[in-house]
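BUG: 3D viewer hangs when loading the predicted structure for this chain

Environment: internal workstation, default settings.
Expected: structure renders.
Actual: progress bar stalls at 90%.

Input used:
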Amino acid sequence: MNHLFDKDKPIYQQIREKIEDQIVNGQLLEEEQAPSTNQLVSFYKINHATVSKGINQLVEEGILYKKRGIGMFVAAEAREKLMKKRKEAFVDQYVVALIQEANKLEISEQEIIELIKQVKERESE
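Structure tokens produced before the viewer hung:
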């Protein structure tokens, strides 16, 4: 199952992102039970410590919480926290670069908005 992972990024981080994606996409709902470490180890055929590292980061950030003897659950407001974090990352990764390049090319704010609208329309077709 290691072909499911990107070679350029740590697997624990990818496990973490897969769970985050499921929460953001509504596949895992708040207060719903998340896959256990053992289930993830079995499914992906990877080391237990690797899975635990990704899961523990989500627990430390309050995205998941443990119920002793029952399992791991999605915390209340987990989706909201993840959406906020991802929007901030979106600005840092994409919008800043977009504005910097637009400035180099002397593309106005209005032109940027028009270009974004055109791309969104094209993507929705």
